[in-house]
Amino acid sequence: MKGLKTTLLASAAALAFTGPVAYTTVAGAQEVKGPKVAWKFSTWGKRRAFTEGMEYVAAEVAKRTGGNFTIKLFYGEQLSKSKQNLDNLSIGAFESGMFCAAYHPGKNAPLNVLDLPFLPLSDFGTMRKVHDAVYSHPSSKKALAKWKAHLYMSNILPQYEYMGRGKPPASVADFKGKRLRALGGMGRAAKLLGATPSTMPASETYTALQRGTVDAIGFPYTYTFVSYKTEEIADWVTTNMKLGTVNCPTVFNADAYAKLPEQYKKLLEDLKDNAYKAINDAYDSQDVANVARWKKEGKLKMVQIPENEMAEFRKIAGKPVWDAWVKDNAGKVPAQELLDLVLKTAGK
User: Fold this and answer.
1) What is the pTM of this model?
2) pLDDT 10s digits, 78-92
3) Which of 19, 109, 197, 305 has the fewest CB atoms within 10 Å of its CB?
4) What's the CATH superfamily of 160-245+290-317?
5) Which residues pair with 209 in a beta bridge?
6) 38 - beta bridge partners?
7) Residue ranges of domains in the chain
């Protein structure tokens, strides 16, 4: 790992570089000429489908620049606690990282529109378009600017399901009285079930479920249950609730990004499509493998909630929760405009 002094020198070199974009074809690929720049990227957990987009970007920028531009991913909260990534990014402790908006809604209120339950985000492509639209909205950029954060892309997460211990639920009513790890708008939906929601980072979920602090964990299906090993201590998992999801963007320190030469900025933009593809492909392959293994092992009960009950749940915990979010944020952010943007973009 390069030291702070080396990183600062690299950043200064990037700032000083003002030459034209230069490309040469090397072994069928384009090489991007430029100065030495070394970035650190802060995340949590271990390498998994969720991080495959940035793993792809990091590998490609190094390859395309002949090793002149590098982004090193630090896992396991080595650089920062997940809830503090924005704070530490803002002071330049590292140049890039990711965070989940639901971890601290007060810091990034416009982005929380994407955390509402039962939004019509039916597939990965729709989710990308909707997330990109919200991230490009002036209010989102303004909110993140307070933390010197430049929004790059979303690390899109699949729809959430619950995994828990004890007697498996057979109906929506069986969630009444349960303590659930439910983030963002999904927490509001949990309250409507008569459950008690709690917000905790993914890294704390195994211990919470093991100790009985919560009865069930809301996580993206299926890979997260495997990544954080909650499958090892759980008795059941739902398969069809599709509760919604949360948004967890990759952000760059605005000062570090501003210092990048234009050809490096262009390279980062050019890599987005394949970065999103890397995430989606990883989810698809892991879902197939995980479900097959769960069925073979027979340890986890795969719970399917009756569709008529889910339809009723969506009716009371969908639009009413959206409207409550708009009301709560009126005058603070253009909440109705953001919700309309989500629904309009999703409907295209």
Assistant:
1) 0.84
2) 999 999 999 999 999
3) 19
4) Bacterial extracellular solute-binding protein, family 7 (3.40.190.170)
5) none
6) 70
7) 4-108+248-270, 160-245+290-317
